[in-house]
Amino acid sequence: MTHDSRLPALLRTGVIGGVLLLLASAAPTPSLAQQAPTDFTAIVKQKMPAVVAVTTRQRVEERQQQRAQSTPDDQDLPELFRRFFEERSSPERQQPRQGLGSGFVISADGYIVTNNHVIEDADDIHVAFGENTPVPAKLVGRDPATDIAVLKIDPQPDMAVTTWGDSDAAEPGSWVIAIGSPFGLGGTVTVGVVSARSRDIRSGPLDDYIQTDAAINRGNSGGPLFNARGEVIGVNTAIFSPVGANIGIGFAVPSHTARTVAEQLIRTGRVERGYVGLRLQEITPAIAQALGRPDDKGVLVASVEPGGPADKAGIKSGDVITRIGDQSVDSGRDLTRAVAGMKPGTQARLTVVRGGATQEVTVAVGQRQDEQASQEGTQQGSDNGGKRLGLALAPIGEATRQRLGADTTGVLVQQVQPNSPAAENGIRPGDVIVAANNRDVSRPSEVAEEWSRAQREKKPILLRVKRDGQYLFVAVTA
User: Fold this and answer.
1) Could you tell me which of 47, 52, 45, 85 has the C-alpha nearest to residue 153?
2) Are 122 and 87 in contact (CB under 8 A)?
3) 274-367: what fold?
4) Considering 102, 117, 195, 374, which one is annotated as catalytic?
5) Could you confirm whether 319 is annotated as catalytic?
6) Class of domain 38-271 as given by CATH
7) CB of 465 within 8 A of CB of 429?
8) Which residues are listed as membrane-spanning (predicted)?
9) In this predicted model, what pLDDT tens digit does every residue of 295-348 receive, in sequence order?
10) Where in the chain is the domain with CATH 2.30.42.10?
11) CB of 275 within 8 A of CB of 309?
12) What is the mean pLDDT of residues 437-466?
């Protein structure tokens, strides 16, 4: 390729230029010299005690079954982008698999932030401070969309706590410090800089990562990324690597996202995200020309969900959305992230171009209910040592309602985990759960609440199920 043949010349130019600069330049200006730290020992001594190793245990058969049922979105994650935590397993299929990641304490009452993929599907979770004996941790909540999870432990004596920093203030070139347990080596410190911000690694619609060259390896997942003031500005999550180990390209969930998600998980156990019911399409130069647009800024509305918030507000297919509130919209990701960050019920002001005319449309943001929320809900029964129900549930969407009948209510059973209580008691994929313990349900979380209550009361959960147009009752015991 052309740039390969020019590479030696570019290197020579750089060396010569650097020598000339060195000869011609005076000593660094005082202001620049003051910004360069001598080392990070003070920060590390203060913050290291607040970083924990997270260990998990899970049955191998479960993990293999869930991998076999992974969604197309899971498989679309580029091979070179890897979310890492260390896994150790016995050659015997019946033996449990152990995982190891990192986390950090965010409050004196024992809340810990880590990655969702570190604790996902774990049957048992422990955290360890340094060389101390691991202590049991309870899963408070998790958010697959941002890969953030919150754990809770009993407060420890003199427990160190981290403080959140402002990830928006982290400019490329600023110092960062990663602390975690790569390959099980607890209390490991690596240092680098912010390489870039707002990176999209195609792991989901909410991608907004800090890129860093601080070394991140297996086991670092869930650990904190500190700025030079010792504040957490990111949660180390993924690396780009063709070899499976650090090559200087790592990614962290920015603190402005992680903090908001963690606070919601602590407060309610789940994350509420806004939605407006739009399918969006990027505007290519050819599409812009066809639409008579002067540029490719904004995002094209490909379709509108019937009866959704945008439909009710009058948004139409073919509209071009250029702003939401005072924020410009340059891509579908911009709009998706902005809406997802809004509280349901918020009035969103969209600037819309239709037929060459610009107008403002106010949309009442709805609440997103998707399969991620249902999978989060079905985990709740295991928080206190109870068994999982073993269902992946989803609300009844418009397309499903049309297929099953206009009067269909309840939640749809999308998957049933083998050997789970639900499977053993005859629940099948495609069933619609209409009621749980004589309570009408419309959200997966409502089924999870009734399952948790049934376990606390040590009795079966009674499900009213619609199957093949007929209703029946199924009692599910733990």
Assistant:
1) 52
2) no
3) Pdz3 Domain (2.30.42)
4) 117
5) no
6) mainly beta
7) no
8) none
9) 888 999 988 888 889 999 999 988 999 999 999 998 888 898 889 888 888 999
10) 274-367, 371-476
11) yes
12) 89
Annotated ligand binding at 73? The verdict is: no
- Joined together, the tokens standing for residue 217 give 């390896």
Superfamily of segment(s) 371-476: PDZ domain (2.30.42.10)
Contacts of 127 (CB under 8 A, 6+ apart): 52, 53, 54, 55, 103, 112, 134, 135, 137, 151, 153
Which residue's structure tokens are 């297929």? 403
Contact 238, 82 (CB under 8 A): yes
Residue 221 a catalytic site member: yes
Helix H or strand E segment including 302: strand 299-304
**Helix H or strand E encompassing 298:** none
The angle formed by the CA atoms of residues 133, 139 and 141, to the nearest 5 degrees, is 150
117 is in an annotated binding site: yes
**How many CA atoms lie less than 13 Å away from 449 in the CB half-sphere?**
13
How confident is the model over 62-103, as pLDDT tens digits? Answer: 444 444 443 333 333 344 455 555 554 444 444 566 778 999
